[in-house]
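BUG: 3D viewer hangs when loading the predicted structure for this chain

Environment: internal workstation, default settings.
Expected: structure renders.
Actual: progress bar stalls at 90%.

Input used:
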Amino acid sequence: MLSFSRILGQERAKKFLKSVMAREKIPHAYLFTGIPGVGKMNMAMAMSAALNCDSPVDGDSCGRCPPCRQMMSGNSPDFVKISLLPDKKNIGIDQIRELNRKLAFAPYGRYRVCVVYQAEIMTEEAANSFLKTLEEPPSGNILILNVREPRDLLPTIVSRCQRVAFQPLTVRDIAEWLVREKDLTEDMAMVLARLSEGSLGRALKMSETDFFEMRQEWLLRLMKLPGLSEEKGFDMALKCGEDANKIGIKRSENGETRIMEILSIWESWYRDLLIMKVGDLTNLLINADFSHKLKKIAGNYKINNLIDSLLVIDQAQRDLRRNRNVRLVVEHAVLSLNRLV
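Structure tokens produced before the viewer hung:
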């Protein structure tokens, strides 16, 4: 059932949107901001269902009427999603023109809700075309831009939208949801929740893939670094670079490359080592299932070296976002990490 009550957390956003829908005249444009996987798309769908529901209850959809059933089946003519097409790098002008053609016709129900997913990747031409739509929106249409950061959009677009901020979810909320809905053990759910950085969507994807196996494989490489000579460290760097190059172009469904996921795992490892170094705060660990190894390995590091290791990984992530060579970036990172032991 696509309803506000089924969305985890985001109570402030729910309250705001319900108050908006209760008005006689509903604003036509919204900016949903926040990290991926915290409920922005589900909120847009819940809003569409509630606006077109024949028998809404306390501002929420009933889940039983024909418009609700259409939404739940994914066949609602009054819900439109614009997203990146396969083999494309940006949302192009043709997609926005097609959206405008749809907007020219009256909605089937009370309102048509149109979501531009990852609106920040619109080309300049597409963004300018969308801006014109925002300035003169056809009646009966509600436009929602789904973005991580408002600053990634044209200021003129941002100024014409009502911003709705979505917050990262708590570790406890994500873990409890994974135990309840996915039947994970509490320990496994807590690891995923801590690694998810507040994103239920990310935690869910990790639970449905080979994430745990990949995590263990790449963490074992870090565990070996403290005992490696400079020559062996160089061999490790070459091996990591070769393997990273093979998987670096593969993307998960949230658009993040696998190598970026690996670097996030490495980042969590050095963060945990730093926690163990400053005090035995096991309850704060992300990789709590490796607590014994963390405690043992932490003795090989100085605090300043752990901080520098985190900076090395941060730089590697920045370089990859600039589309630098995956193999070279990873090789350089591993060599730098080996020197910091």
